[in-house]
Amino acid sequence: MTDIADELAGLDFAAVSPEEFAGIVKKASAKDIATIMQGDMRERVLAEVFGRMGRQFRPDAAGSLDALIRWKVTGEQETVYETRIADGTCTVTEGRSEADPRVTLVMGDAEFLKLVSGNGNPVTMFMTRKLKVAGDVGLASGLTRYFDIPKA
Predict the structure, then answer these.
(1) Which of 26, 93, 118, 124 could make a disulfide contact with 149, Cβ separation 3.0–4.6 Å?
(2) How far apart are CA 14 and CA 11, in angstroms?
(3) CB of 80 within 8 A of CB of 70?
(4) What does the domain layout of the chain look like in residue ranges?
(5) Does position 87 have pLDDT exceeding 90, yes or no?
(6) What top-level class would CATH report for the domain 3-146?
């Protein structure tokens, strides 16, 4: 493993601030990300990132928004999470529900980590087909304003 992969493997993700995580992702190469986003480590990283979404949600920015966002993160396998924004709250669940999402976002592991850590430009990702959007493209284009995205 590389130094960054080793660093991530030993991390207690709950003790890492969003800004520290953003800095780690910024330093990581695509190969580093591919190395760490396997098996249990991948599950730990995704669970921690999605687990923080509710805490990083900005209800003042969301206002009266009512939407279900489905995230499909591809890589070693496809992992699905859903984010429900309604009544000034944000709840995150693992897995696919029977509800119809207002928007579905599909991206690989590296793109997902870059997006949620503030290290990737969602417009560029969309234009280069690294981020696929099905449904309400307008909602997708404004999602970042509903969350405190860390800066590395």
Answers:
(1) 118
(2) 9
(3) yes
(4) 3-146
(5) yes
(6) alpha beta
Q: Which residue has the tokens 């897995």?
A: 95
Alpha helices by DSSP H, the chain: 3-9, 18-27, 30-36, 39-56, 59-62, 109-116, 122-127, 137-142
In this prediction, what percent of the chain has a pLDDT beyond 90? Answer: 57
Tokens read off for 131: 């981020």
Q: At what angle do helices 18-27 and 39-56 cross, to 10 degrees?
A: 130
Is the pLDDT at 1 greater than 60? The verdict is no
Report residue 133 as tokens.
Answer: 């959007």
Q: What are phi and psi of 86, to 5 degrees?
A: -165, 145
Tell me, what DSSP letter sits at residue 102? S
| Residue 63 φ then ψ, to 5° | 55, -125
| Residue from 119, 104, 44, 108 nearest 77 by CA | 108
